Please model this.
Amino acid sequence: MALAKYRRGGEGMNYWPGFVDALSTLILSIIFILTVFVVVQFVLQQEISGKDTALQRLNAQIAQLTELLSMETSNKGDLEQQMAQLRASLATAEADRDKFKGIAEGSGAGLADAQGKASDLANQLEGEKKVSARALAQVEILNQQIAAFRRQLAALESALDASEKKDKEAQSQIANLGQRLNLALAQRVEELKSYRSDFFGRLRQIIGNRPDIRIVGDRFVLQSELLFDVGKADLKPEALPEIDKIAAAMAEIGAKIPADIPWVLRVDGHTDIRPISGAGQFKSNWDLSAARAIAVVRYLATKGIEPQHLLAAGFGEFQPLDTGNTEEAYRRNRRIEFKLTER
Model:
């Protein structure tokens, strides 16, 4: 009767498949964690090199790591629950062993069999204790990995904070530099405007009021007929005294301009809208206007104005003062302009 009860009890205690399932789940969890750890490190190394885009990706990775941490914490709870079940099984097995020992001691006929079964139970208990120790070691490893994940999260958050701080500081420095640059440029422009006014005032004093020499906006304008023959880019001899006056005024004003202001005297050539034949020296009005501007610049350079402060430009017929089709409009558009401006 006692032996039948013992056999039925032994069949109810077959918990080895559950233990194998728990161990398999534990090994798969460890492999999954290691895989996730390697993948996360690779992604982090690729993503940290960016700035704004990297910050967004790091935030996404932090969310993923947080989710993984939550999953691992849940797995840890499952393992701890399994450990509790194993401990309960151990306690039950020890109770059965003690019970069987008592039965064996009270029964002479089944003593040897009971002792053998008790020995088997003892061996099983030792095996389960070893398995439990290994499970505890694995739980400790999981705890260490979770702590490492938390340290990585803290490092990433610190890196994000440092990067955001550097970005804010850089933006502040850029804004300050922009304000200072704008202020310096405004000051230089105002200084150059004052010298331009002095230049034009000095030219008015030297040249006087002449209908073929006038001021249009911020430019000093001479009619082309005063300086060149029709279709030519060679300065007329009678035009040289007028250009000498401009050179003298520019030399006087240029000596007063500080060296740190990058000024130039720009000479612009313009023609009327009527095309030239193209059979001569110049193929188009553009070529003719540029050649005339260069001729004036070269002559000014011979009068002491440094070449780095001279600039020639040809506009052809594309910047007219008068859009009419009369001879007077054509005459006004054929001109040489002088402008004191920044380089």
About this structure: Residues 1-7 have pLDDT under 50 and may be disordered. The chain is about 70% helix and 10% strand.
